[in-house]
C-alpha cells in the first residue's frame, strides 16, 4: 500500500498510524485476532500487494516523527470503532517498544536527572489509577496469551524496556526479527535466570578483570595501559559470547578492538600469560631483530579456548591508534577464513568488534564497514559489536560535543541492527544481553550491537588527571565502590556466596598474578589450530626470487579462446562484441595484445594453475575505463536472471576461484577489508583497484598503518596488490596522480613493491610474478589510463612466452652506445611522449631507459645501463609529476650511487606545485611539451636538478 493511500484513509491517518501498525502485525500472525472491520481492510492491502507483506516503513516513520514533534504533542486521537482505551493501551505498549530505552536505568553513575518522556506515561493516553485493575488485551505482547490487568501490563512493560536493559529494534523491517526479539525480552521481562553456579562464575570473571587492572596500577605506576576498570562486565560478556558461539558450531572468532581494556581482554579472555605481559611492561621481552615492534596496547594475539561445543580459536587483530580502522581489517580476515573453511553462511567464523563510544559515533569507517555487512562481496554473516561506553570518549563528557545523535549507537540503525543498551553495573543483565546478541547473529546473520554503559575509573591513560576536565563526573566515580563490590554484596545477600568469599577470590587471583600464571582456566595452550595458514614458505624470500611467468604460445592461445567464447544465445553489446572480436585476433597472434587482454590472460593463467584471484573496487567488473570487461552482460536478460557471464570463471573444470566485485563507494573500508583478507589468505592473489588513483587518498590510514608498516610492527605479512590509475592526460588535479611520492616515501626494508609497467606484457608478467613467486609483500602498481589503448603499449603474443617481468626496460632503438651523450631515465607514460619526440627529431645520441620497478630499486640493472654508455656525461630523470611529487626526490640518491664522477644529474619535469596537476588542458599541454623538451634539450643542466 502506497504512503499516499495510507494517509488519505481517514481512520489510518496521523497519530493512529502506530496503532494500525500493531493491528496489522497481529493480523499477519493471525487474521482472526483482529475485528472484522480491520480484517476486511487488511485483506484489501494483501490483495493489492499480491499476497505479500505490505511495507511497514511509512507507519513506523509516522510514529517516530510524531514522537519527536516537540512540546506541541497531544495524545493520539482514538481510532474509529472499537474501545478507545483498549487502543490506547496498545499504543502505550508500542511506545515502550520504540523508545522505552529513553527511561531505562542505564547509567551506573546516576549523574543526570532526566525529564519523563511524555509518550511513556499513562496519562499521555488518558489512562490512570481508575483503569489499573481493568483488563485489556496486550495485543502482540509476548509475555502472555490472554488479557492482563493494566497494572500488570504497566509493570511488565516498564520492567522489560525501562530497567537496566534498553532495547532498540522497532526500525527493523522484518516482522520475524522483531517478533523474535520481543519473545526474548518480553517473554522474560528482560530478567535473566541464572543458577548459583553461573552467578559465582560471573563474580569470578569480574574479579579477575578488576584485580588485574589494580595489580598493574600498583606494580607499574604511571605506565600507559588504557585501563578497563569501570567496564569489568565486558569480561563475562566475552565469556558467554565465546562459549555460546562454540556451542552453536563456531570454530574461530576474530576480535578487533582499540586500546581501552585491551590488556584485560588479552589476559582474561584470550589467556595471555601474565608473566609475558609483565615482561613487556618491564621492557625485557626480546623482539625479532627484523621487527620494529609496537606498544603493548596495539599488539595482537591468538589462542584456543575450550567451549561446550569444542575448541574455538580466538584471534585478536593488531590495531594502531586509529581506533576503528581495525573494523574492516577484521571483516576481511573473517571472510578469508570463512572461504578457507567453505563456510558460506558465516556459522563457523565470527567477527567480534569492541568499540569506544566516541569512536563508534565519530569515525566514518564504522559506517563504511557496516555498509559492507550485507553486500555480496564482503558480508561475513553478521558481526557482534560491543561498545565500551564510558560516557566520556577521550575527554568530552558532554554528548553535545561528542555526537549529534541521541545515542552513540545510532549509526547502527542504518543497517537495521538491533541495539541492546545495558547497565554495566548489572553483570547478569550484561550476560543475558550478550547471549541474546549472539543468538540473534547466528539465527539471522546480521549485525547486532551491545551498548555497555559503564564508566572509566582512571583518566584517558594512566598519566592523565581526569579531574582537570571532568570534576563532577569524577567525584561520582570516586564514590562508586566498583561493579565487583556491588555484585559481591548482592550475591551475599541472596545467599549465593558466603561472607568473605569475594575477598578470598581477590586474594587467590593476586597470588596467581604474583606467580605470573594464567587466570583463565579454559585456555588450551600449545594447540595448532586446524586449517591454520603456514607462512613459513614466504618468510625471508628475496624479491629477486625467480618466478616462471612466461607461457607457451599454445597455452596462451588456448586460454585466449576460453576468454572470448560465449554461451549460446548470450547477446553482448555491439561495443563489447567488437572488443571480443579484437581479443580473438589477439589470442591468435594476429595483432598485439592490449592491456585489458593481457590482464585477463594473466588471471586466466593463474586460475588455470590453481591460484585463486579476488579483484575488488568501484566498477571493477567492466573497468573504470571500459578496458577489462571481466563481467559480460546479456542485453536481453537482467543480471539476476542469468544475465551475466564471467569468462574467467569458466576457464576449465576444477579451476581455482575467480571473484570480481564492484564495491560500494568506499575506499577506506574496502581497502581495509582487502588487507585483512590478504593477511589470512596468502595463496590468493588479492587486488584492490581505485577508480582513479587519487581515490586512494581516502584510504591513506590503511596504507600508512597496515600495508606499509604492518610487517615491521607486527610481523604481519600480506601480498595485497593495489591498482592505482596514474598519468597526466590533462584531466586536472583530481584525476592525474595516484601520489606516487607518498608510496615511495614509505618504502624501506623492502616492505612494499612499487611498479610502473609500460607495456601489456609487462603487466601480464608482473601480475603472475606477484602470485607465483613465494614472496608476500604488498605490490603498488601505477596503472595507466591512456596506455590502455595505446598501440605502442600493446605487446605481441611472443612477449608473453619469453622472459618475464623486466625491472628495467633498456633502450629499444638501435643506437650506437659510444655515441650516446645522454641517458634519460623515466617511468610510466612519459616514456612514449619523450620517445616520440626524439624519433620525430631523429635524435640518435640520447638513450631512454624505463625503470619499471621503482622499489625495491634494481641497483644491478641500473648500474648495467649506466655502464652501457661510457661517453654519456649527462643523466636526466624525467617525469610528468611536479618536482616535489612523483619519484624525483626519492630516486635521486639511487641514481647518484651508480653514476660516474664526471656525470651530472638533471631533472626534466614540471615545477614544484601545491596541486598535483593543472586544471586547464592548454596549460597541461604546454607543461608536457616543456618537460619533453627539457629531457631532450642540450641546455638541460644540473641547475634543473634542484627543481
How would you describe what is shown here?
By secondary structure, the chain is α/β, with parallel strands linked by helices. It folds into four domains: 172 residues, no CATH class; 319 residues, Thiamin diphosphate (ThDP)-binding fold, Pyr/PP domains (Rossmann fold, 3-Layer(aba) Sandwich), CATH 3.40.50.970; 233 residues, 3-Layer(aba) Sandwich (Rossmann fold); 138 residues, 3-Layer(aba) Sandwich (Rossmann fold), CATH 3.40.50. 38% of the residues lie in helices and 12% in strands. The chain contains 31 helices and 24 strands. The strands form five sheets. Strands 3-9-10-8-7-4-6-5 form an eight-stranded mixed sheet. A seven-stranded mixed sheet has the order 14-11-15-16-18-17-22, with helices on both faces. Strands 19-21-20-23-24 form a five-stranded mixed sheet, with helices on both faces. The longest helix is centred in the N-terminal third of the chain and has 24 residues. The N terminus and C terminus are likely disordered. E1 component of the 2-oxoglutarate dehydrogenase (OGDH) complex which catalyzes the decarboxylation of 2-oxoglutarate, the first step in the conversion of 2-oxoglutarate to succinyl-CoA and CO(2).
Amino acid at each position: 500500500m502506497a504512503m499516499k493511500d495510507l494517509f488519505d484513509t481517514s481512520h489510518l491517518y496521523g497519530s493512529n498510524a502506530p496503532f494500525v501498525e500493531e493491528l496489522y502485525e497481529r493480523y499477519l500472525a493471525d487474521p482472526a485476532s483482529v475485528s472484522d472491520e480491520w480484517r476486511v481492510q487488511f485483506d484489501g492491502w494483501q490483495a493489492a500487494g499480491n499476497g505479500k507483506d505490505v511495507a511497514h516503513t511509512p507507519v513506523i516513520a509516522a510514529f517516530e516523527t510524531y514522537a519527536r514533534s516537540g512540546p506541541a504533542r497531544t495524545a493520539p486521537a482514538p481510532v474509529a470503532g472499537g474501545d478507545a482505551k483498549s487502543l490506547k493501551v496498545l499504543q502505550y505498549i508500542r511506545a515502550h517498544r520504540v523508545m522505552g530505552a529513553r527511561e531505562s536505568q542505564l547509567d551506573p553513575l546516576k549523574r543526570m536527572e532526566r525529564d519523563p518522556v511524555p509518550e511513556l506515561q499513562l496519562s499521555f493516553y488518558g489512562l490512570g489509577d481508575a483503569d489499573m485493575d481493568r483488563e485489556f488485551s496486550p495485543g502482540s505482547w509476548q509475555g502472555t496469551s490472554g488479557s492482563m490487568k493494566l497494572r500488570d501490563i504497566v509493570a511488565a512493560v516498564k520492567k522489560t524496556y525501562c530497567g537496566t536493559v534498553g532495547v532498540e529494534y522497532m526500525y527493523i523491517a522484518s516482522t520475524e526479527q522483531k517478533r523474535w526479539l520481543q519473545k526474548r525480552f518480553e517473554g522474560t521481562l528482560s530478567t535473566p535466570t541464572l543458577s548459583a553456579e553461573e552467578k559465582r562464575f560471573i563474580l569470578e570473571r569480574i574479579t579477575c578483570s578488576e584485580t588485574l587492572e589494580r595489580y598493574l596500577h600498583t606494580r607499574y605506576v604511571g605506565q600507559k595501559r588504557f585501563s578497563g576498570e569501570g567496564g569489568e562486565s565486558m569480561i563475562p560478556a566475552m565469556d558467554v559470547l565465546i562459549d555460546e558461539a562454540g556451542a552453536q558450531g563456531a570454530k574461530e572468532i576474530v576480535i578487533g578492538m582499540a586500546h581501552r581494556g585491551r590488556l584485560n581482554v588479552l589476559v582474561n579472555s584470550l589467556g595471555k600469560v601474565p608473566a609475558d605481559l609483565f615482561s613487556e611492561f618491564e621492557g625485557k621481552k626480546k623482539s625479532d631483530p627484523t621487527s620494529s615492534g609496537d606498544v603493548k596496547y596495539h599488539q595482537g594475539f591468538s589462542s584456543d579456548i575450550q567451549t561446550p561445543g569444542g575448541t574455538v580459536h580466538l584471534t585478536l587483530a593488531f590495531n594502531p591508534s586509529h581506533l576503528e580502522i581495525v573494523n574492516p581489517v577484521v571483516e576481511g580476515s573473517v571472510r578469508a577464513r570463512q572461504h578457507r573453511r567453505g563456510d558460506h553462511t558465516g556459522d563457523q567464523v565470527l567477527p567480534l568488534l569492541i568499540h569506544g563510544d566516541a569512536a563508534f559515533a565519530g569515525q566514518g569507517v564504522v559506517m563504511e564497514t557496516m555498509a559492507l555487512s550485507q553486500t555480496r562481496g564482503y558480508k561475513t554473516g553478521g558481526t557482534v559489536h560491543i561498545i565500551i561506553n564510558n560516557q566520556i570518549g577521550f575527554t568530552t563528557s558532554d554528548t553535545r560535543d561528542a555526537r549529534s545523535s541521541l545515542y552513540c549507537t545510532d549509526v547502527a540503525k542504518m543497517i537495521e541492527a538491533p541495539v541492546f543498551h545495558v547497565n554495566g553495573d548489572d553483570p547478569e543483565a550484561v550476560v543475558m544481553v550478550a547471549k541474546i546478541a549472539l543468538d540473534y547473529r547466528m539465527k539471522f546473520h546480521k549485525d547486532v550491537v551491545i551498548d555497555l554503559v559503564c564508566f572509566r575509573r582512571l583518566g584517558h591513560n594512566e598519566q592523565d588527571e581526569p579531574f582537570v576536565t571532568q570534576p563532577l563526573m569524577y567525584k561520582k566515580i570516586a564514590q562508586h565502590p566498583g561493579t565487583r563490590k556491588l555484585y559481591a554484596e548482592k550475591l551475599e545477600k541472596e545467599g549465593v556466596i558466603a561472607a568473605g568469599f569475594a575477598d578470598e577470590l581477590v586474594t587467590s587471583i593476586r597470588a596467581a598474578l604474583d606467580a605470573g600464571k594464567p587466570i583463565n582456566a579454559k585456555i588450551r595452550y600449545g594447540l595448532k589450530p586446524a586449517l591454520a595458514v603456514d607462512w613459513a614458505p614466504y618468510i625471508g624470500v628475496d624479491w629477486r626470487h625467480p618466478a616462471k611467468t612466461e607461457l607457451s604460445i599454445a597455452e596462451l592461445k588456448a586460454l585466449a579462446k576460453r576468454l572470448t567464447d560465449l554461451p549460446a544465445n548470450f547477446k553482448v553489446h555491439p561495443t563489447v562484441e567488437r572488443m571480443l572480436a579484437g581479443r580473438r585476433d589477439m589470442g591468435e597472434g594476429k595483432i598485439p595484445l592490449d592491456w585489458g587482454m593481457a590482464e585477463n590472460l594473466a588471471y586466466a593463467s593463474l586460475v588455470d594453475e590453481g591460484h585463486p584471484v579476488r579483484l575488488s573496487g568501484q566498477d571493477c567488473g567492466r573497468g573504470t575505463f571500459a578496458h577489462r570487461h571481466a563481467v559480460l552482460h546479456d542485453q536481453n536478460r537482467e543480471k539476476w536472471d542469468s544475465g551475466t557471464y564471467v569468462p574467467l570463471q569458466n576457464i576449465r573444470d576444477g579451476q581455482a576461484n575467480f571473484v570480481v566485485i564492484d564495491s560500494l563507494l568506499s575506499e577506506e573500508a574496502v581497502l581495509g577489508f582487502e588487507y585483512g583478507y590478504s593477511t589470512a589468505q596468502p595463496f590468493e592473489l588479492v587486488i584492490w583497484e581505485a577508480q582513479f588513483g587519487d581515490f586512494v587518498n581516502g584510504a591513506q590510514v590503511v596504507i600508512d598503518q597496515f600495508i606499509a608498516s604492518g610487517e615491521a610492527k607486527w610481523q604481519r605479512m600480506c601480498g595485497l596488490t593495489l591498482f592505482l590509475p596514474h598519468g597526466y592526460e590533462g584531466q586536472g588535479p583530481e584525476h592525474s596522480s595516484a601520489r606516487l611520492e607518498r608510496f615511495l616515501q614509505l618504502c624501506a626494508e623492502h616492505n612494499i613493491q612499487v611498479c610502473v609497467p609500460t607495456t601489456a606484457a609487462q603487466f601480464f608478467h608482473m601480475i603472475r610474478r606477484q602470485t607465483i613467486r613465494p614472496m608476500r609483500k604488498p605490490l603498488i602498481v601505477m596503472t595507466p589510463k591512456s596506455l590502455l589503448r595505446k598501440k605502442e603499449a600493446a605487446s605481441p603474443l611472443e612477449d608473453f612466452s619469453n622472459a618475464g617481468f623486466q625491472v628495467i626496460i633498456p633502450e629499444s632503438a638501435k643506437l650506437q652506445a659510444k655515441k650516446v651523450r645522454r641517458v634519460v631515465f623515466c617511468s610510466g607514460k612519459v616514456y612514449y611522449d619523450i620517445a616520440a619526440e626524439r624519433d620525430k627529431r631523429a635524435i640518435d645520441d640520447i638513450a631512454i631507459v624505463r625503470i619499471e620497478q621503482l622499489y625495491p630499486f634494481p641497483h644491478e640493472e641500473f648500474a648495467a645501463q649506466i655502464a652501457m654508455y661510457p661517453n654519456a656525461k649527462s643523466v636526466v630523470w624525467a617525469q610528468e609529476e611536479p618536482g616535489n611529487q612523483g619519484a624525483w626526490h626519492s630516486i635521486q640518491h639511487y641514481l647518484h650511487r651508480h653514476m660516474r664522477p664526471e656525470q651530472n644529474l638533471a631533472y626534466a619535469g614540471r615545477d614544484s606545485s601545491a596541486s598535483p596537476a593543472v586544471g586547464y588542458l592548454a596549460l597541461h599541454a604546454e607543461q608536457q611539451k616543456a618537460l619533453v623538451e627539457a629531457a631532450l634539450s642540450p641546455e638541460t643542466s644540473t641547475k634543473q636538478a634542484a627543481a
